[in-house]
Amino acid sequence: MSDAAADLRAMIAAYWKPHAICAAARLGLADALGDASLDAATLAAKIDADAANLERFLRALASIGIVLDKGDGTFALTEMGQRLRADHAESLRGMARHVGTQLSPSFAQLTECVAKGRPPEGIAYGTQGFDDLNDDAKAAAIFNQAMVDSSRRFAAEAVQAYDVTGFASFADIGGGHGMVLAELLKAAPDATGFVLDLPHAEEGAKALFARQGVADRARFVGGSFFDPITHAADCYMLKYILHDWDDEHARQIIRRVGAAARDHGATVLLIERILPETVQERGDHAIAMYGDMTMMLWNGRERTKAQFEQLLAEGDLVLTRTAALSDNHYVIEALSN
């Protein structure tokens, strides 16, 4: 077999890996294992699983570095597997559950999306998905925890790459449970702020503010970024908001944010992935394009720097600078024109 055929075969066969990781997260396997070494029967009793199939599953997870097969019939979490624990400081359990239950099913309809030029019918939560989350508490919990997992990482990077200490107040627009706002407030200890989002996020946001020690400086405001934003702030932050929407809806959002920034003399900051102008065969570009395929299925899109400049202009905003984060993500600063 040629190297090209072998490489392609490996990519085709790799579909099982994210499904296995997502299954581990949904089963609560990492939380049940903790720091212990357990055999399959003992672990099966803890997570209400079939012992024989669980042993086969654990061996599969060992082959991709999630658990360690200790050779005596017991299994333990690896450093990577520890990140599937809910209580880990770098937990990705919420993101894994989100991918497995809410994103992965949509990729089965990628052919239809490419052929017809629109998101397929029937994708869970779909174009109006954020409104639907108000009526589906379980789905909302999975989605919001995934956003906490993502925001924890990129917000921590953002406050290192971009100095936010000069702002006295922040608005975390569409901020969900408010992980971004919490990181901003910890970096700017004299500042206050609020999250603007739909009602499904309020309870989780208040709980997160308390856990992060910022409850006395943070509040939740119920509302939609498609409506006029009347609450004042020195800095309007949007993390992973514009990529959720097609250009028509993104223009509506940026006009609202631009108007608020203009009214209050504020700075607009985005945390978004910036796509390369020319795509190459390399790992970071593959991750970026995976993001764009995901958003295409959900009626959103990732954008190049030039596309962000065009979009920001719709809100009478000018892209003034960027600060690089990891995995093609950036803090994008914009000011009123």
Automatic annotation (TrEMBL):
Signal sequence residues: none
One Pfam family, short name: Methyltransf_2
InterPro entries on file: COMT-like (IPR016461), COMT_C (IPR001077), COMT_dimerisation (IPR012967), SAM-dependent_MTases_sf (IPR029063), WH-like_DNA-bd_sf (IPR036388), WH_DNA-bd_sf (IPR036390)
Residues annotated as the enzyme's active site: H243 (proton acceptor)
Superkingdom assignment: Bacteria
Domain O-methyltransferase C-terminal: 107-314
UniProt GO BP: methylation
Keywords assigned: Methyltransferase, S-adenosyl-L-methionine, Transferase
GO molecular function, one term: O-methyltransferase activity
O-methyltransferase dimerisation domain residues: 12-84
PANTHER family listed in its UniProt record: O-METHYLTRANSFERASE CICE, PUTATIVE (AFU_ORTHOLOGUE AFUA_4G14580)-RELATED
Protein name: Hydroxyneurosporene methyltransferase
Lineage: Bacteria, Pseudomonadati, Pseudomonadota, Alphaproteobacteria, Sphingomonadales
